[in-house]
Design goal:
By secondary structure, this protein is of the alpha/beta class. Helices cover 34% and strands 30% of the residues. It has helices spanning 19-28, 62-67, 78-84, 107-112, 128-137, 153-156, 171-175, 195-200, 202-224, and strands spanning 9-14, 44-47, 52-57, 73-77, 89-93, 99-106, 120-125, 141-146, 162-167, 178-187, 189-193.
């Protein structure tokens, strides 16, 4: 099937922990061309029969690609949407990848700490905007050090007293001697859509949204059974 660029729907998919869930979602929709993504360095896969193009990106880049129209749709954690506040349409909670954004500190500090007495904190995080907004709302002055990974190391070497990070089970915190203190936000994977694409490719975009919605509901039904 020949297609023009305007026919093709480009969908940005997240590398990392969400990808297996994403692949299962599309497999349930009958889209099987993605099964090699998890074990490949390829960045683009195409399904010419359905006029679909799939891009694999770092999760933090997906809202940018979608906002600027380099991708028509994308799948990304709510944490990134809250942090970046991009102008995208968010039609669907995909209900997988559940995790929480929390404040954590060393266990030894936690024994004598009182969060109600906080007035000034130094913390490390990949979410500076969310952290600043959260502590500002509580009247706490926060000195924020932005890091891109290995946040658990920051309190251990004295770079920061505390961290704000995303956790699923909390096991990584525990293994590094850290204790959760407060929860800032909850996050699950979300479908996002470029606002212009929603207008210019409305029927195809809306059809994909409904297919995903039905698949999410079917997965939820199976989980309850």
């Amino acid at each position: 099937m020949e297609s023009t660029n305007n026919d093709v729907i480009a969908i940005a998919l997240p590398k990392g922990r969400l990808l297996p869930h994403v692949l299962a979602l599309f497999k349930g929709m009958g889209i099987t061309c993605l099964q090699g993504f998890a074990d490949s360095r390829r960045l683009i896969y195409e399904d010419p029969y359905r006029c679909l193009q799939f891009l694999t990106l770092k999760p933090a880049d997906i809202p940018t690609y979608v906002e600027h129209g380099a991708a028509d749709m994308g799948i990304v954690g709510k944490d990134q949407l809250l942090e970046q506040r991009r102008d995208v349409y968010e039609p669907l909670d995909l209900r997988f990848g559940a995790c929480r954004l929390v404040v954590a500190e060393p266990a030894e500090l936690h024994k004598k700490d009182d969060p109600y007495s906080w007035s000034h904190l130094r913390l490390a995080t990949k979410y500076p905007n969310l952290a600043e907004a959260y502590f500002s709302s509580k009247g706490i002055q926060a000195e924020i050090i932005t890091l891109n990974g290995s946040l658990e190391l920051a309190p251990l070497v004295g770079l920061a007293e505390r961290i704000v990070d995303l956790v699923e089970t909390g096991q990584t915190l525990k293994e590094n001697g850290l204790v959760e203190v407060e929860e800032i936000a909850k996050s699950t994977a979300r479908l996002i859509v470029n606002r212009a694409s929603l207008k210019t490719k409305y029927r195809r975009v809306q059809a994909l949204i409904e297919q995903m919605r039905k698949q999410v509901e079917a997965q939820a039904e199976r989980a309850r059974a």
